[in-house]
Design goal:
By secondary structure, this protein is mainly beta. Helices cover 9% and strands 26% of the residues. It is globular and about 40 Å long.
Amino acid sequence: MSQFPCYCGHVISDITDHLPYKAFYVASEERLATLDGMRAYERTMYECAECGRIWMQVTEDTNDWVSYQPESGRRGTLSKRGATPEK
């Protein structure tokens, strides 16, 4: 995935490393498998810089995504510093 449009019209790009709006997640049940020495299934998530919608990869190594829209105006929840104050 190099880029895709969010429902708000903003284009989310993934063309470099260390993006503040990109993160990886492992389901809790997978995390426990990792502790037992098994491989965890890491999936990707993105945050739209315009509307704050979180896009989560449904299955590892697929182009299948589900999104969640925040109820607040806070943005940057995936960045190293965390979310910005409410607007």
